[in-house]
Amino acid sequence: MNNKIRNEFVTKKLKTYAKKEAKSLSFGLFLSIIRTALEIIGPIIIGYILNTYIRVGMEKSDFISIAKLLGIYLIVYILCGLFGNLALLAFEKAANMISFNVQKDVYKHINRLPISYFDKLPAGNIVSRITNDTNRLKMMFQLILADMTTSTIMIVSIYGMIVITNLPVALLFLLLVPIIYIIFRDLRYKTAKYTSLNREYVGDINASINENIQNMEIIQAFNKEDHVKDEFDKINDNIFKSNLEVTKVRSYGGYRAIDALSYVGTILVLLYFGIGRITGSYAVTIGSMYIVIDYISKIFNNISTVVTRFGELEQSYASATHVFDLLRMETQEESQGELTDVIGHVRFEDVYFAYNEDDVLKGIDFEVKSGESIAFVGSTGSGKSTIINLILKFYEPRLGNIYVDGKNIKDINRASLREQMAVVLQDAFLFETDIKDNIRLDDKSFTDEDIEKALLDVGGDSIVKRGIDQRIFEKGSNLSQGEKQLISFARAYIKNPKILILDEATSNIDTETEKTIQRGIEKLQEDRTTFIIAHRLSTIKNVDKILVLNKGKIIERGNHESLMELDGFYKNMYDEQIRNHE
């Protein structure tokens, strides 16, 4: 998608979210207009005082009139501040609601993305977009657009008053418009360039931090702290340089240029009134000169505000692009078919699958009847985990079909399909909450008694004795590997699935611990269709079927005894493991 179409998409999304908060934004705009009117009235009061009352031989009544007018002037600016603050609150309310809605929609959208997107997009990058970028998006509506809208109204309104009160000065001011336009155009181009780079670097540094923290044990174990720090410093240096360039652009090309122009504008006004005073060719009064100079000063102050916020607007727009890039990612099409009265009969029919170009599964064909167990063995990269990913519908086959109880899973709703399954992975992932919440996963229908029974049934007696309210630290660091896996077993068991998937569930556990939790594994498999990815071949002697995979193909199939008699790939693997164990 080219930049033009991409920008149109971002602009359209911003308008959509803004329309939802049209009431607050319109109210803020209305209050800004009132504030502008009050800002215009102030200088007129002072100009009137200068023209009418400031003279030689002022009388007491003149001072009383001036005091009254200054009182009105004070009230005008108090009201001006009041309406300005109310306008800011209205814009702030709209901005927070827009940010809330964007974050909600983006997070919901991410949950519906295919797993393949997460293979390519670092977690830290996603986190940066949902947090940092949406906060900057909030700034767009909270301050930037609020200030830019108010300032634009002020500029147009005040210039209109100059046209009405002093047309020659208004025409003189037009001489500066081309220069202001050139400043804006240069600022916009350079700011967009460097802020876009900055957002990319921020995403990179978040991804780097996330990756390094997750793998701190490996980094320290291999003494790679300096190497990691050097890589971090390089990205950080890029962020520093891009931010410095943005600062230079704003300072030299934005603020200072507008400041210089404001001096030029003031000089032009003074020259105009000076020439009029000297030549007498047109009327000149102190009050009118004050009003025009005050208006010119306000115009340039507001132009400076627009220029200031314009740079920040480009940053926010770049952030909005990052956020909405996630919303542009296509979600998986959801099938409408439902699975009911499941018995767990699974069949693969000539399935091919590729992550990129080369197939990692080639013509996979097998059948597992209800209640049977099947194990997949083979070397790393043979396609074992890919088969499991296809059953769970994380990916779609390139060719072929997968059936559950005779229904093609292409036609089955993913939630309905996964509701019938439970998975125990090689690395037991636990959330930073208590044990019982890790088992029921927010399903309030499971009572504490149900959770304790599930733990006891899978062999987690020691965990029940300690209490299911025990809080789990990050990565389950306060539990042993066996205890973490038992909690995973209980999580799968309490769900009472028809199809159970054990993805090398005991490969990270020592042999003694494995014997302890073997009861849990056997209990899990009762009356269920079970898929097992096996690392230790000794653990699958009793399964009904074993498929031996090599380079994405099934090269042997049978049970343990028949494969040992075959004296092929499986027997060689088994004998080698036995020798290594001995």
One letter per element, helices H and strands E, the order comes to: HHHHHHHHHHEEEHEEHEHHHHEHEEEHH
Strand content: 5-15%
- Helix count, DSSP H or I runs of 4 or more residues: 19
- What class do helices, strands and sheet pairing give? alpha/beta
Low-confidence stretches: none
Number of domains: 2
- Helical percentage: 55-70%
CATH topology of the largest domain: ABC transporter transmembrane region fold
How would you describe the overall organization of this protein?
With 582 residues, the chain is α/β, with parallel strands linked by helices. It folds into two domains: 10-328, ABC transporter type 1, transmembrane domain (ABC transporter transmembrane region fold), CATH 1.20.1560; 346-581, Rossmann fold. The protein contains 19 helices and ten strands. The chain has helices at 3-20, 22-52, 60-111, 115-120, 123-165, 167-173, 177-214, 216-221, 225-279, 286-328, 384-391, 414-419, 435-440, 448-457, 461-466, 481-494, 511-525, 560-566, 569-581; strands at residues 346-354, 359-368, 373-378, 399-404, 407-408, 421-424, 499-503, 529-533, 545-550, 553-558. The chain has a six-stranded mixed sheet, sandwiched between helices. The model has no long low-confidence stretch (mean pLDDT 83).
Tell me briefly what this model is.
66% of the residues lie in helices and 10% in strands.
Write the layout of secondary structure elements.
Blueprint: H1 3-20, H2 22-52, H3 60-111, H4 115-120, H5 123-165, H6 167-173, H7 177-214, H8 216-221, H9 225-279, H10 286-328, E1 346-354, E2 359-368, E3 373-378, H11 384-391, E4 399-404, E5 407-408, H12 414-419, E6 421-424, H13 435-440, H14 448-457, H15 461-466, H16 481-494, E7 499-503, H17 511-525, E8 529-533, E9 545-550, E10 553-558, H18 560-566, H19 569-581
Parallel strand pairs: 3-8, 3-9, 6-7, 7-8
Antiparallel strand pairs: 1-2, 1-4, 4-5, 9-10
Helix pairs in contact: 1-10, 2-3, 2-5, 2-10, 3-5, 3-10, 5-6, 5-7, 5-10, 7-9, 7-10, 9-10, 14-16, 16-17
